[in-house]
């Protein structure tokens, strides 16, 4: 019980559900539309994003006493951009097929407001370990949304999960069809909207 | 030290550390990245002649081995001759699927315009010089679900067995129909078209033009194959 109430754990758990960056803060929606056609890309994107938010928060928090106030945003961006490029390089070297599918969206993590937002509002005012956990939590919260949306889109849009067919041929033989609409960006918008609705009504209860 | 000087010194230090880190990562991973790009190209060449099935799990080493065993690349000089290597600026690259020491198909790089950007891929023609052996796409910017379907197996598979010549044997290229071939194309021209993608008329039109241009560029080679067996020069 003690661990669950510690500020370090809270820094991680709050953004996952209660203060989810996508649902509550409405951040990072752009990439949530783009990379959620398949589960595989969504998971890799979520991992890359979590890596960047966690380590940028850690680095910035560790330097928070020495960063001159007037250049703090430039410093934050340098740290974030370096980490993003690092993640992109690793993907290109080890997961080439997935990095090809993610194309520009890994690079665009730099412009994802979640990263900068956490650095500005949290990491600058809190100790490194807590900031790291906060970054991890925000990445996980973002990832949770991404994976949920991708699960729904891949299942109904292509009848597959992780690229494997899960809708039996029997269904297709009897007139079931994949929803082509699920493959398009507006579908992700609608799913996210419904998830926000669900999350809000659960939280109120 | 004044505040301003401190800010400048701090940012300079951060920039230095970040650039060192990134340079290290980029150089350290360079070989792996280049190898990935090369293997991806090889994979698509193999796909165009039907040697690499989609969703088939293959390791990098397996692909490289298969490529080495079956594909040989040459250049086509200005006079349409197959040469091992050419310094000629307008020499065209061409690869062959070699089976029992004979070319079973020739593979042409396709660089076409698309709706949102360029489409890159390969088209393979059988050694009769007129039947398409396959088609593959390795890079494009078309809309996912619409024009993006050009890279999907169902669309690429439709090219197999199509003709680049008409019934009389004259060059006709292979194009993408607007709709189903059986409904919109005259019976005697159906061998020159594949089914179109609904919602991607423009992508189809651009790719049709691109394929025609490529097939025209390599027209001399197709004629050479149509006129009889072709033997490849030694070395590649």
Layout of helices and strands, plus pairs?
The complex is a heterodimer of chains A (205) and B (236).
Chain A: H1 2-5, H2 7-16, H3 29-34, H4 39-62, H5 72-94, H6 96-102, H7 104-107, H8 113-121, H9 128-158, E1 160-161, E2 164-165, H10 169-173, H11 185-204
Antiparallel strand pairs in A: 1-2
Chain B: H1 3-48, H2 60-70, E1 71-76, E2 82-83, E3 92-99, E4 102-113, E5 118-126, E6 132-139, H3 153-157, E7 175-176, H4 181-184, E8 193-194, H5 201-217, H6 219-226
Parallel strand pairs in B: 7-8
Antiparallel strand pairs in B: 1-2, 1-3, 3-4, 4-5, 5-6
Helix pairs in contact in B: 1-2
Number of beta-strand segments of chain B: 8
Task: Provide the low-confidence segments of chain A as ranges.
Answer: none
Q: How much is the radius of gyration of chain A in Å?
A: 18 Å
**Strands ordered across the widest β-sheet of chain A:** 1-2
User: What is the number of helices of chain B?
Assistant: 6
Number of domains of chain B: 1
User: Whole-Å distance between the termini of chain A?
Assistant: 23 Å
Main pleated-sheet profile of chain B: 6 strands, antiparallel
Strand order, largest beta sheet of chain B: 2-1-3-4-5-6
General form of chain A: globular
Tell me the overall shape of chain B: globular
- Range of helix content of chain B: 25-40%
Order of SSEs of chain B: HHEEEEEEHEHEHH
Which structural class should the secondary elements of chain A be placed in?
Answer: mainly alpha
Number of helices of chain A: 11
Radius of gyration of chain B: 23 Å
